[in-house]
Amino acid sequence: MRYLFAALLLLVTALSQGKEVAFTFDDAPRKATGYFDGPTRAKTLLQVLETHEIPQVAFFANTSNLTGERLERLRRYGDAGHIIANHSHTHPNFNTQELQAYIDDVNEADQILRDFPTFKPWFRFPFLREGNTAAKRNGMRKFLDEHGYINAYITLNNYDWYIESLFQEAVAEGKRVDLDRLRRFYLDVMIAGIEYYDQMAIQHIGRSPKHILLMHEMDISALFVGDLADALRNRGWSIISPEEAYTDDIASYRTPSVLKYNAGRIGEIAYDKGQKTDLWHETLNEGYLRARFTAEVLTPETAPAGSRVKTPRAE
Length: 315
Description:
By secondary structure, the protein is α/β, with parallel strands linked by helices.
């Protein structure tokens, strides 16, 4: 009996130390005129999410170009059971816009997105910028509260959008891109950032919270998000729904600080607890990423012409 109790204690301890993360995608539906077209991106991403048993993610949508194929793409995500949420109408920079204009932009998106059956009143601030003055910050908090919205914060920050831009730049220029190398590069960068912010959380709140990973609706996400899920699971992580993630106690945290730039909820907490530097991991640096992309992803010119990336299209 003593040994059984010890084994159960070890199991409970292991489970209590498990790491959890939800996947979310900003800027949906993003421009798709490079490696994938829009229908192919949506088809690929939805297939990967299903195959890798990621039952629900959240797509934070901008609505200013939500017509035609882009509208159909967002509907496909919702029809597959994924959450559709508000990322503003025009993706404005709150640091350079007045409060009322910003609220009007969010309201315009709200009126469009509420027609989606899987819509949730969640708002994610574009650029993660929540107000560079106390008046603007407090004004948006009041607006969200009064309209039943939650601040859909993130805890795990990264520059996946810049990796995408490097990839699409290489494709447009006809450069040789080795997709296996790109996958390894992407996974290494993403996991390094995830582990960095998780350790920051453990340092400042004493535990690994239910994390929310920021990604973007784009081609490298469709290509590699399944590999990312597998890699995280191999490291002891569980993939949870965004709804579950936003039940964590840090969801109610409101920084007293006015932050012109925001590294995410863990960065806010770290800043308020006295960490004023290193709130952005080294992988959130464009020069760093370009140098590594060039060295690790682009195939040397001596490679055979057959290694040149071909652009797929939906059938």
